[in-house]
Amino acid sequence: MKLIELISRLKEEAKVSSFDILKVLSQIEEKDISFYLKDNDIEIITKTVEKMEKYYLEEYPLEYLTNKVSFLGLDFYVDENVLIPRIETEDLVLLAIELIKSKKINNVLDVGTGSGVIAITIKKNLPHVNVWATDISPSALEIAKKNAKKIGVFINFKQGAFIEPIIEDLSKIELIISNPPYVETTYINKSKQLKYEPRIALDGGVDGLEFFRKLTLYSDNLKDKTLLFETNEFNSTQASKILSQIGKTKILQDSFGKERFILVSNLD
Ligand SMILES: C[S@@+](CC[C@H](N)C(=O)[O-])C[C@H]1O[C@@H](n2cnc3c(N)ncnc32)[C@H](O)[C@@H]1O
Question: Which of 42, 63, 168, 267 is surrounded by the most beta carbons within 10 Å?
Answer without folding.
Answer: 63
